[in-house]
Amino acid sequence: MKTTGGSDGAKRRAGESAAALVEPGMTVGLGTGSTAAHAIRRLGERVADGLDIEGVPTSFDSRQRARDAGIPLRALEDVDTIDLAIDGADQVADFALVKGGGAAHAREKLVDTAAERFVVVVDSSKQADVLSHPVPVEVLPVAHSVVAGTVRDAGGEPSLRRADRKDGPVVTDNGNLVLDCEFGDIAEPTALARTLSEMPGVVEHGLFVGSADEVHVGTDSGVRVLERE
Ligand SMILES: O=C(CO)[C@H](O)[C@H](O)COP(=O)(O)O
Description:
Elements: H1 8-19, E1 27-30, H2 34-48, E2 54-57, H3 60-69, E3 82-87, E4 91-93, E5 96-98, H4 105-114, E6 115-123, E7 135-139, H5 144-153, E8 157-160, E9 177-182, H6 189-197, E10 202-205, E11 207-208, E12 214-218, E13 223-227
Parallel strand pairs: 1-2, 1-3, 3-6, 6-12
Antiparallel strand pairs: 4-5, 5-11, 7-9, 7-10, 8-9, 12-13
Helix pairs in contact: 1-2, 2-3
This protein binds ribulose-5-phosphate.
């Protein structure tokens, strides 16, 4: 798993803080990434102590982690309600997020948006006044050149995500490709999200606007909890 952002201790504190919100009987969305992994590990410990929950993974990686942690799982297609989702982010500004550093944002958006309560877990290096992180855009493989052109027309600079340990592109859990799209400062994330969603060939993009209810920010000494009013 790629790791970005701040210290592992800060990520652990954020993940464990969110895991403490889970109550018996809940169906819990399990996010992807190194911070969400701490929440999954902690939930596994609570399950071993008798907590009765079901997890809904957002990726191959989070499913493997949850299995290893001993969390009973349900597939996304078998679930109609999710009580609480815990997921990481690449950048957070005023409850708007850029996600998809692990190329899992399509399923993450399904799970996180469906959840009654969506709790974001980050370390403080992910906080910003204005979003500026490149936006991952998952595209149908045949569409990557066309979408790259459309992104340029919209003022972005796309770059096909390449795999580290393989020649060629990253292929998502859904069999698609990812364009990381640089837009500079994103002053109006809602408008950009709509523009990206309307592009033919786009499966899902990593701008999450209006879905996060809480952000648990891990620091070197504790956790700051931000709640949306
Ligand atoms: O969106 C994601 C995966 O698609 C991750 O949640 C995001 O990349 C943050 O990861 P990490 O906690 O490892 O920094």
